[in-house]
Amino acid sequence: MRDLPANQLNPKIKNVWRINDAIWLTVVFICCFVPFAIAAAVEPAGWITITLIAIAVVYLACLIIWLIVLPPIRFVRWRYELSNDYLDIARGIIWRKRFIIPFIRVQNTDTRQGPILRAFGLSSVTVATAAGEHEIPGLDVETADQLRDKAAELARLAQEDV
Length: 162
Known about the structure:
The protein is of the alpha+beta class. It is 54% helix and 26% strand. Strand 2 and strand 3 form a beta hairpin. The radius of gyration is 21 Å and the shape is elongated.
């Protein structure tokens, strides 16, 4: 089996993942908790209180898992490498995925930066093929720009060779 790609993401990506996950977990928690809280305020019942406690316990457990346990593991498993012929991406904790993207298939490369990534000075590189998009998140802006430009140039050269 082929060795894992050599490059890792910027360590700041762990904080970006924590913030994104905290936002989504909180939105889901509020959507689940508020209807039962309203029901408990209108007509108190024992099962509603138990349900509210269960939702809160699940929320706290999910916060611990997604904000403390998963980010370091996810960071270690995320790797990428750019060679002259292909882009190699490896990721995943339980379901490990490995993408080898030949530059002959690349149609578009770009960088993306949302508000949370921007706050940490990070950016993502996206490589599009006919089969879909592959993203490398959490690179510092300069590295992301260099990776995007080099991938675009290698894709152009591969197209010219055909």
